Amino acid sequence: MAKRMNRNIDIKSKRVKQSVSKLDGFLRAEYNSEKNYLEYYAGLETLEKVTSIKDQIIYGRRGTGKTHLLKALQEKLVEDNQKYLPVYIDLRTFKPTLESDNGLYYALIIFQEIVVEVLKCVYVNLDYLYKEYTVEQQKIIIDPQRRKILALLEKFNRSLDGKSFTKMGETGFRVNEVKKLATNLKITKIPELFGSKEVNKEIESEDEKIKYISFSDMSDAISELLEAVDINRIFCLLDEWSEIPETSQYILAEFLKRTFVPKKVTLKIAAIPNRTQLISENRIGLEDGGVY
Predict the structure, then answer these.
(1) pLDDT tens digit string along 47-79?
(2) How far apart are CA 58 and CA 94, in angstroms?
(3) Which residue, 62, 59, 120, 64, is CA-closest to 89?
(4) pLDDT tens digits for 135-157?
(5) Residue 96 and residue 93: Cα distance in Å, rounded?
(6) CA 19/CA 279 separation, integer angstroms
(7) For a tag on the chain, would you pick the N or C end, based on fewer CB atoms within 10 A?
(8) Tell me, what's the pLDDT at 100?
(9) 279 within some domain
(10) What are phi and psi for residue 227, nearest 5 degrees?
(11) Domain count, the chain
(12) Pairing relationship of beta strands 265-271 and 210-212 according to DSSP bridges
């Protein structure tokens, strides 16, 4: 019988640290090019806990698997075939080039991009949502719904150019709209907000293709979408929440609560502890209940 070698390994050695670093890079969801997150997700018990229709905040330090969990959940919801549509959104993609002190306007821009992304995702997945119908039935049902969603996207200056969506021009929020929201949300301290170039776009030349939208426009777009499309529920999977400035987080959370929570939309938010402010002192935002 061969002798077993007793070898002491120094877990703090440079070689071990390099090996762990390589393994960490291999396992991170961002580097998974095969797009089979569910197959490689080890925490099935954890996955079951987040498949409910209740809104949940998923806390974890960077690199602990929040992105992998959300993407595995996305795949599972599709596999479960309950006419749920998961919409995964990496919030880093939509970070506007604004000063973080402009919390309200910053939150409006991010919220607008979330609404647009949901509209686009439903549009491209209509065939999936109606896959149980015949081709003839799909044509009768889907074509009017596509036209409806495109009309909603046009309000946000988006159009379909062949197979991809393009931005026809800028969107903006009028000063009075922002002031009204600030009053409604009891925001009294917004440095440089009303004199900022971003908010005061209405003084730009007429050559600028700017469409002005309001919070109610964005909220109504989601309501009209859910009324038009036969879907049991949308799961909005928001990743990298803590990359949003904390001065905007609770305002964005309030927008999401007012627009999504009363409807057939479930929120799953991945965030980092100590870098997250979902609710303000005057209770504007999302409660931390239902936290995983």
Answers:
(1) 888 999 999 999 999 888 899 999 999 999 999
(2) 20
(3) 120
(4) 899 889 999 999 999 999 999 99
(5) 9
(6) 41
(7) N
(8) 54
(9) no
(10) -75, -30
(11) 1
(12) unpaired
281, burial (CB in 10 Å: exposed 0-12, middle 13-18, buried 19+): exposed
Q: What's the token pair of residue 171?
A: 């969107």
In a domain, 27, yes or no: no
For the chain, the straight-line distance linking the first and the last C-alpha, in angstroms and rounded, comes to 50
What pLDDT, in 10s, does the model give residues 75-85? 999 998 889 99
Stated pTM of the model: 0.82
- 156: containing domain: 37-271
In a domain, 14, yes or no: no
